[in-house]
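Reopening this ticket.

The earlier resolution said the output was attached, but the attachment link was broken on my side. Pasting everything inline this time so it's all in one place.
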Amino acid sequence: MRPSVLCTLLVLFMMTLSCNGKDNWTDAERELIGSQGDVMHVTKTDNEADLAILRSISRELPVEAVMDPIFPVLSEKMTKTMLAPENDGVGIAGPQVGLLRRVIVVQRLDKAGEPCEVYPNIRITRFGGKMEAGQEGCLSVPARRGRVLRDRDIDITYTNPASGKDTTEHVEGFTAVIFQHEIDHLDGVLYIDKTYNDDPSLFDAEAVKGQIENLCRFIPDHGLSDRAEYYLTPSYYDLYKRCFDLPKDPDDLGDGEFLYYFVSGNGGGTPVFAMEDITFIDNENAEARISVAEDFSEYGGGIGESRTGILKLVLQDGFWKIDDWDGTRTLCEEYLRSKGITES
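Inline output:
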């Protein structure tokens, strides 16, 4: 490990240990906020120490920390950093100024005067409507842009800095895209993990990894997810839909167990996916080896056994879509035939 990366990880570790019991800001965090001028250092992917921060998951801010006098100082500095001529952004997240806390600033292009507003402990509580593709760039990813598929209709919930209470808002259009981009930063996700244009990164295994794992999360379980249509090829989606539209006999557990198993890829717990590797067969087809484990945490258990399967992918309209999951297309077809229904 290079010294710069080791130093960064050590700083992050010390930030966690040096917590001030009164307001939950660490000494290192206070130093980071107070020691810089109005325009803070923006972490970049071409710097190894910065990249370690950008790929880390941020922690929530207790209400005491949001109501502390240092929070408006941070808010003002993040806003000025975002709007500085050398950055000229419309959103910025804590990790982009070296702070692993769940806080973002967004310029509300959907409001009169386009004010810049701060959102601590921000999260998306509802996705809705159609997903659309759009160009994105990032202050932390120098000299690159790419097309990303995003929802244009979301609800956000955050800690209101004025009251300390949870507040929920409805956001639409391009502003909804900004929120999704910045919230991704809080989970160590960059927009380049989700691009699907003609950029060479589309065929770079590491660059595609994040996108493939994102696709896996939308493999439906116990039913056909509304969002599955965007992540499955049309023919595969129709095949799934035919299976789930079959009338079910409540006493016929075999049907339910079979459908749940081949759709979720596991035996009952929440599926946890990870991509092991990917092979690009040609410019339109790929195969990814995916491991899936069962997470029984919500039932008081842990992570169960994992299995490995092949995810067949097809490039359609510049976006990798799932065309088969470990042979489930064949299982779907066989299941429909057993019920006297053709798959086409």
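Reporter confirms the inline version is readable. The first strand starts at residue 91 and ends at 93. The chain has two domains: 3-193, 200-338.
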